Amino acid sequence: SARDIDAMAQIWTCTSDDINIAPPMRPVIRIGWDNIKANYLSFWKTLSELSVTMEAPEIRVNGDTAWLHGVEIARRRLRDGSTEGSHNAGTSIFVRRGGRWRLIFHQATALA
Prior knowledge:
The chain has 112 residues and is α+β, with helices and mostly antiparallel strands. Helices cover 17% and strands 54% of the residues.
């Protein structure tokens, strides 16, 4: 929500294995941290505010892999002052590397 690329780099594995399927409407598959990072930076320029929350994530852990899913509530204020939002089915997969959990996959799909 802070639109902070350095904070995002602390969450993702920042490797060529990373996959992000978004935005929720007409999603595009982006593979590799460089592509994901470029997309974030481009998308965030269109916004003056962003809020994404997941109130009740379902979390599972199996060894060094964990995944969560739930309904994301996204709210956006565009640079022109208009607002929009969506409820999205969100899924994230994490891997444990060096004792830290890092995001390697995220998908958000708009719910009707």
